[in-house]
Amino acid sequence: MSRFETSQWPVGIRSALLGSIAACGLASAALAQGIVYDTDVVNDGAPITLEYWTPYGWGFQQDWIDAYTERHPNVTINLQSQPWGDYWNKLPVALRNADGPDIIGMHIGWASSLANMLEPWPIDFEDLDADYALSWSNMVGDNILFMNMSVIHGGIFYNKKHWTAAGLTEADIPETWDELRDVANRLTLRNEAGQMTQAGFCYQGAFRDLLVDLNYQTGTWNFSPDGTSAEMNKPAVLKNLEFMVSLYDDDGLCDPIIAETNWEGMGQERIAMGYVYNWVGGWLDANSNVDWGWFPAPVFEGAPAIGRNNVENSFAVSAASPDDKKAVALDFVRFVISEEDLVLQQVLETGGVPTLRSLLDHPLVLENPIAAESIARNMIESTVYGPIPVAWEAGYDYVRDIVVDGGDLATALAEGEAIANRRLSGLGFVSAERDYPNAQAFGE
Questions:
Q1: CATH number of the domain at 153-309+387-441, out of 3.40.190.10, 3.20.20.140, 3.90.1580.10, 3.40.50.1000?
Q2: 3 state DSSP class of 283
Q3: pLDDT over 60 at 30, yes or no
Q4: Contact indicator for 314, 147 with CB cutoff of 8 Å
C-alpha cells in the first residue's frame, strides 16, 4: 500500500504586487458602491496600539497595515506571524483575554468553533452584498464576522517542460480521469533499475481535498441532509477512495517517497502533475523556477459538480479586546474592504477568484491563468461552496493514515466517520453544501 505523506497547512508567499498595481494606475481605488470608508479620525487622535496575529505569510497584510497607519498615524498595528499549528492551538485561549490579539488571521475551518469569540462587524449586509459575491459566506447567524475576498478550489498544476518532453500539447489537457491516467503514464519516468525519477501525477499533501472533490463529482454529499454530521461510510466514497489508491498502487503514477507533498516535488521538478488548491501557483513562483501550467480537475462522466470551492478568510476582530481597540480594529476592517487596490493584493497573492465583483475583469486578475480560466468556466457556480470545520477534517485525516499503514479502506471510512461526528457534536456547524445550485443532480 502506498504511503501518502502529509505536511503542515501551507502559507501564502508574498508576490511582487505593488509595482504591478501602481503600473495599472490603481492608486487607492475606492469601491464607491456599498462599502464606504469616510473616517477622518480614530481614537480621538490619541495614540493606540493593536496586535494582529496571523498564521499566514501573506505580504499584503503588512501593506494593509501600512496603508491604514499612513492615513491614521496615531495607530500602530503590530503584525505577528506564527506557525500554523501553534497558532490555532493558542488562539482559542488568547481570544478569551483582553490582552490577546485584537485582529486575527482567520480560516473557514475554525469559523464554527471561534464564532462566539469574534466581534460582529457594524456593516450592513446589503452594503457588503452590493460589492461582494458570496457575501453571506462571511456570516455566522445574523452577524458578519470575517471576510472572504477570494474563492479557491482544486485543480491540476503541470510542468510545461515535462509536458513538452513527453510530446504533449495543450490539446492533450485531460478533461476526464481516464484521460488523465493516459497523460500521467506518458509523464512517468523510471531509471534502468525501475526507480521512479519523475512522477506523472501525485496528490500527497492534498489527499483529503481530492477525495472531497471526487465525492461531489460522483453526486455524493459529504454531510447529512441536515448538514450537521459527516457522511463518509458510504459505497460511493469507498469507490472514490479505491480509485485514488489505484492511481498509485495499480497505475504507478506516483511514489510518495519522491516528495513529501506534491507541490514540493513539483518545485524540485520530480513531479510532472499534481492536484492541489490555487495557492500553489504563487508557491512555485516564489520557491522554484518551474514554468507551470494549470487546468481544472478532470471529472467523471455526468459529474454534477467539478468539486468543492473554499474561501480565503482574511481577518476577524476579537470580541474580548478593549472597546477602544475594538473600535479601531473594526475601522481597519472597513478601510481594507472598501479599497479595491488593497483587496486586489489579497486576490493576486492567494491566486483565487475575487468575490469583489469589480475585480472579475481586472487585467491583473486575468493575467493569472488559474483565475482567468476559473472565471471563464464560472467555477464559483460549478463547484460546491463547502466550508468544512477542522473537526470534520479529522475523520478523513484518520482515513489517510489508515491508507498509509495499508489498512482496510471500508473499516477506515467507518471509523473516520465516527471520529468526525464525535468532534462535530455540539459544535453547532451546519454545512451549506446542499445550497449548491445543481443540488438536484445529487443523490441523497
A1: 3.40.190.10
A2: helix
A3: no
A4: yes
pLDDT mean over 127-135: 92
Q: How far apart are CA 61 and CA 79, in angstroms?
A: 8
Question: Dmax of the chain from CA atoms?
Answer: 74
Domain boundaries, the chain: 18-147+314-376, 153-309+387-441
**Which residues, other chains included, contact 235 with Cβ-Cβ below 8 Å and sequence gap of 6+?**
none
Give CA–CA dist 201/253, Å, rounded. 5
Handedness of CA 215, 218, 220, 221 (dihedral sign): positive
Per-residue pLDDT of 338-374, as tens digits, reads 999 999 999 988 888 999 999 999 999 999 889 999 9
pLDDT digits (tens, 9 = 90+) for 31-66: 547 899 999 999 999 999 999 999 988 889 999 999
- Is 18-147+314-376 a CATH 3.30.1360.20 domain? no
Cell 461526528 belongs to 421
Distance CA 55, CA 82 (A): 5
Instruction: Give the C-alpha separation, 127 to 246, whole Å.
Output: 49
- The residue written with cell numbers 518551474 in the block is 290
What residue spans of 318-389 are helical by DSSP H? 323-338, 340-350, 363-367, 369-376, 379-382
Same fold, 18-147+314-376 and 153-309+387-441: yes
Q: Which three cell numbers stand for residue 278?
A: 490555487
Q: What is the pLDDT of residues 313-327, one digit of tens each?
A: 789 999 999 999 999
**261 Cβ partners below 8 Å, 6+ apart?**
5, 6, 7, 204, 205, 206
Residues in the chain: 444
Residue 274 neighbours by CB under 8 Å, 6+ apart: 156, 157, 158, 201, 202, 203, 206, 262, 263, 265, 266, 280
**Reported pTM:** 0.83
Among residues 304, 209, 200, the alpha carbon closest in space to that of 252 is found at: 200
d(CA 400, CA 212) in angstroms, rounded, equals 13
